[in-house]
Write a structure and sequence with these properties.
single chain, mainly alpha, 62% helix
Amino acid sequence: MKSLLEDLYEGTSRRAKLFRTCILVFDVLTIGYFLFTAIDDLDTSLIALDLAIGLVILADLVARTWISKNRFRFLWSLTTISDLIVLASLLAPLITGSNLGFLRVLRMLRLVRGFRVLERLDSLSTDIAINIRVTRAAANLLVFIFVVTSMIWVWERDRNEDLETYIDALYFTMSTLTTTGYGDITLTDRTGRLMSIGVMIFGVGFFLNLLQAIFRPSKVEIPCPECGLRLHDSDASHCKHCGSVVYIETEGQT
């Protein structure tokens, strides 16, 4: 069983790629589901769907933990911790009867892993080279925007008359992140102001990281076995830092 799971999660076979594609689709669908139902009143159908999603997440976590080479590091990763919190929020209604929807927005963090899965799915297109750094930077920025927007929407919707819809919260996040700041929507309570500060400080960093990834020369992330330098030119045969040989896999195309 362990060998089968290792092949599905880490292998290069067609079956493994199809399996990881299904995981990616599941992640995207559940992210949309959590966004649209984070503040909805719970009913029987939502509770049943929450439990079904929770079982899939739990099975995925158990499988990944089992095949992980460093389980301690895996369990303490940001993605795993967020999934555990989501699991708690899905089970909370059965125990407390309350809808901890604001915790579900952390499910958006799985989108980062979804993009990393996408990088390995070469069966999607063999003609388009994926820039890993740009993809990862874009994914991080996208995750940050929607996590923060969801937190603002869940927290402020009953406190701020200017936030009537989720789009209003997204508009506020984008105008704050880009330092445009039209001022037509403001967060006046203490928690809201702290969230605004967080958007300005961390959001600008994510945005600049994306710009750097786009405009800097394309690099391949292959750690040098001697000095540990991670980024090299795509056609490099030696490390620029220490001169050691680096092996960069290519498809034989120039």
